[in-house]
Amino acid sequence: MDALAMKKLAGEFAARYVEPHTLIGIGTGSTAYWFIQALGEKMKQGLQIQAVATSKESAILAASFGIPILELNDVDEIALTVDGADEVDPRLQLIKGGGGALLQEKMVAAVSRRLVIVADERKQVAQLGAFPLPVEVIPAGWKHVRRRILEMSCPKVELRGGTQPFVTDHGHYILDCYFGQIQDAHALNLQLHEIPGVVETGLFLNMATEAIIAHADGHIQLIKRES
Ligand code: 5RP
Known about the structure:
The protein is 27% helix and 26% strand. The protein is an alpha/beta fold. It has two domains: 3-125 and 205-216, Rossmann fold, CATH 3.40.50; 133-199, ACT domain (Alpha-Beta Plaits, 2-Layer Sandwich). It has a seven-stranded mixed sheet, sandwiched between helices. Helix 3 links the parallel strand 2 and strand 3. It starts with a helix and ends with a strand. Bound molecules: ribulose-5-phosphate (5RP). The site of ribulose-5-phosphate has 18 residues, from helix 4.
């Protein structure tokens, strides 16, 4: 099974977690795409739900499948959010933000009772950090933030998009930080948040409750976070 087939398998599998008449958070990326698509199919068969999107891209996609979208500010609690990830460790700590939607993704995850991650086996790592950590920053001060992160023994920090910077849904830039193996993700997250100009990091710690991992041999691995 190739990467696309694994993403489809995991994304579509997650649709069976959705209960009628609930509020669902819908993730961003090429794996979440299949969840949204499957949800749209279920709605054609009569399922009624409402959703909050983690990006403009996902909101447009969901609306095209007939899924009613609410604003995050207009809801209290989300029953279930299904989202992708760039890295998943054995304790379901994550790196997210490869698609640039980390801020809204984290805000949605923070008000969700369940955060189910859909991913293929290539995203599983023993320790976070091989994937460059996305850090969302205020454009007016990104160079100063970059310098501070380089001083934190991070050998390489790239402005996403380079001379034509990628702009997030919330109008910010992203710095991709090549820390390498992250020994203490909680400490790193706190340290990054202390830098003026940092809006959010792609470290999603103690947020995912479950993961649906699709493997190349076609089997699905279900992981629950130990409480
Ligand atoms: C977007 C994300 C995505 O969920 C993450 O990048 C995984 O994407 P994909 O399923 O396309 O591999 O965090 O900000």
